[in-house]
From TrEMBL:
GO CC entries: vacuole
Transmembrane feature ranges: none
Entry keywords, A to Z: Carboxypeptidase, Hydrolase, Protease, Signal
InterPro entries cross-referenced by the UniProt entry: AB_hydrolase_fold (IPR029058), Peptidase_S10 (IPR001563), Ser_caboxypep_ser_AS (IPR018202)
EC number: 3.4.16.-
SUPFAM superfamilies: alpha/beta-Hydrolases
Gene Ontology MF terms: serine-type carboxypeptidase activity
Protein name stated in the entry: Carboxypeptidase
Biological source species: Aegilops tauschii subsp. strangulata (Goatgrass)
Recorded family membership: Belongs to the peptidase S10 family.
Entry-linked Pfam families: Peptidase_S10
């Protein structure tokens, strides 16, 4: 394990910012892409109605997808997948879902691996009984431009984009999306997401609240942040105590993990692109003791029976390389 390059195991122990994109979900993305290219995404009220996804079971709710231009010049556009509520969409709130990363696809991860109506199973799609569209109309937005199908014709944008620009594009997206789907104007709106969306969500809310002072178009009711990245120093300082109190690391490792290099320092060095040999050494020791066979997201899981991604990577590395 070279100090300059964290091992795969160390990467797998990284918390919220890492998106756990799944190969199956990526296959679904491609299916949707080809569907749109064949023209099945055109037409219908509001545009972009999806008649049926490949391998999809019969459902009664509406599905839409498409692009919303956000720069007024037609050179930058954000991609969305929108599912209406299963029952009475006209009375249900509107929920915007954002995955994090930065760089995670809300389509591949949020919609088709987490809280959307379907998930892939072999060549088909099966219903997700916990889908959020049982209670809400959900927009899965790929943001910023460069993520998933969202794009900028000017590639320099990908290098320069920051959280402020993302928040502004997201707000323009919502504004123009409501023009496409006028029946949702004034609807109760919740902004939700996970991981790095801990930045996207409050920042989008802030620009919406500002915008509302001039033109009150967003009926913003609430925010939901799942496993959010807020600030490295406050988010990541419980790991040593948690591992130690669950008997996963020794007393002496606990000591160096709280004095020589703590986890918030490790994370900021790692994301800052300059991991010190000191922190690398401490993390290697922690990783050695916790072992590859303990899922850091759920340390009490049964090692042999779990299908959690990190464990399946160890059991069948060829599937998730
Ligand atoms: C983002 O916006 C905030 C608030 O308007 C401002 O203080 C900050 O400097 C901006 N950051 C960048 C990178 O533009
Ligand atoms: C973690 O380490 C950093 C830098 O060494 C220090 O500033 C911070 O107070 C430490 N945090 C905790 C919770 O010990």
């Amino acid at each position: 394990l070279s100090p300059a390059k964290p091992s795969l195991t160390a990467l797998k122990t990284m918390p919220a910012p890492v998106c756990r994109c799944r190969p199956l979900a990526m296959a679904v993305l491609l299916l949707i892409a080809s569907l749109c290219h064949l023209g099945s995404c055109n037409g219908g009220a509001g545009g972009g109605r999806i008649t049926r996804l490949p391998g999809q079971p019969e459902v009664n709710f509406g599905q839409y997808s498409g692009y919303v231009e956000v720069d007024g010049k037609g050179s930058r556009a954000l991609f969305y997948y929108f599912v209406e509520a299963e029952l009475d969409p006209a009375t249900k709130p509107l929920v915007l879902w954002l995955n994090g990363g930065p760089g995670c696809s809300s389509l591949g991860v949020g919609a088709f691996s987490e809280n959307g109506p379907f998930r892939p199973s072999g060549q088909a799609l099966v219903r997700n009984e916990y889908s959020w569209n049982k209670e809400a109309n959900v927009i899965y937005l790929e943001t910023p431009a460069g993520v998933g199908f969202s794009y900028s014709a000017d590639a320099a944008y990908y290098q320069g984009v920051n959280d402020n620009m993302t928040a502004m594009d997201n707000m323009v997206f919502m504004q123009r999306w409501l023009e496409k789907f006028p029946q949702y104007k004034g609807r109760e709106l919740y902004i939700s997401g996970e991981s790095y969306a801990g930045h996207y969500i409050p920042q989008l809310a802030e620009v919406m609240v500002e915008f509302n002072k001039k033109d009150n178009i967003f009926n913003l009711k609430g925010l939901a942040l799942g496993n959010p990245v807020l600030h490295f120093t406050t988010d990541f300082n419980s790991r040593a105590e948690y591992f130690w109190s669950h008997g996963l690391i020794s007393d002496s490792t606990y000591r160096i993990f709280t004095s020589v290099c703590n986890y918030s320092r490790y994370v900021s060095e790692y994301y800052g692109g300059s991991l010190s040999p000191l922190c690398a050494r401490v993390m290697n020791q922690v990783t050695r003791e916790t072992s590859r066979f303990v899922d850091k997201y759920d340390v009490t899981l049964d090692v042999c029976l779990s299908s959690v991604l990190s464990q399946s990577m160890i059991l069948s590395p060829h599937v998730c390389s």
